[in-house]
Amino acid sequence: MSTTMMKRTAAAFALAIGSCLAALSPASADVRLKDLVDVEGVRGNDLVGYGLVIGLNGTGDTLRNSPYTEEALANILERLGVNVQGEDFRPNNVAAVLVTAELPPFSRRGSRIDVTVSSIGDAKSLSGGTLVMTPLNAADNQIYAVAQGSVLVSGFKAEGDAQSVVEGVPTAGTIPGGAFVEKEIDFTFAQMPRVRLALRDPDFTTAERVETAINQSTGTPIARMMDAGTVELSLADGIDPARLMSRIENITLQPAQKARVVIDQRSGTIVLGADVTVSTVAVSQGNLSIRITETPVVSQPNPFSRNGETIVVPRTTVDVFETGPGNIATVQQNVTLSDLVSGLNALGVSPREMIDILKTMKTAGALHAELVLQ
């Protein structure tokens, strides 16, 4: 390769990815403390229940394949004073479902929460159905909420004799505000002697910045960094934990970002962090092409042959060639993200090829970032 071409290629190289690449800004923005940490002990609790969705337009469970649906429906009717023992009823407008929800922290009796309804039988769609009163239990098997209401389904299914079309997931839906909280979880936040803040992305630098920002905001050294993921707040007499959190949760600071490259191999999406750097390295991208051509030949026996057979004789031709000169690019020391992205785009590197290049650069030790493959 000529010196001129090397200079052009080296100048072009610093980038990557085509339209599939999402590049972050080199400068990190200030983030509120509430978006960086979780308060220890303040969390939601998962709830689950078994129920029935009724009123379906012939898209419910087939009771022969889902006998538990028939049993649950019979139990509900029995509780309502309708005796169906020994009766032969097989409605197709009922579906057995699992109802899931999250009980948010500090939820009080009478509050409403959203629920998700998912079919567990062979129902075709829950569209237009109504969830019958369903108790929701937590891990301790206690009832904390009761759900009921019309199911909202975003997907649909249309079918004919020879073809069907399914858009989205018609066998799952939601009920916004569909459950009432019936029991509260005992948690007295105001009586906590200390509060621990758990960083969602543990990092020593970020934890130290959180400690400094809180102490500067309150004017007293109440915050102490315990490790990369925990900052402890000591509460003196007379300090209310809830009021303290309301004062500090809107403090803004700049979190430290890890140098990270995230690759989704299924879609070809690549996301590069702002602090990704590359050491001096040379990259060669080959344009090797292989063409295989099949030209079968029919071989027939001689005329009037008694034992001859007509056979097909395969003829395969394999051609190996390069579509153009290979690109060799030299990356200089400590190339930044913007340089890397613009250079590889100039070379016309596709996202799939870029994934292979990044993997190889990481193996060679030239890519200084955490490589996350999905």
From TrEMBL:
It comes from the Bacteria. Keywords: Bacterial flagellum, Cell projection, Cilium, Flagellum, Periplasm, Signal. The keyword Mitochondrion does not apply. Residues 1-22 form the signal peptide. One of its GO terms (biological process) is bacterial-type flagellum-dependent cell motility. GO terms for cellular component: bacterial-type flagellum basal body, distal rod, P ring; outer membrane-bounded periplasmic space. One of its GO terms (molecular function) is structural molecule activity. It is found in: Bacterial flagellum basal body. InterPro entries: Flag_FlgI. Pfam families: FlgI (PF02119). The basal body constitutes a major portion of the flagellar organelle and consists of four rings (L,P,S, and M) mounted on a central rod. Assembles around the rod to form the L-ring and probably protects the motor/basal body from shearing forces during rotation. Belongs to the FlgI family. This is Flagellar P-ring protein. It comes from Aquisalinus flavus.
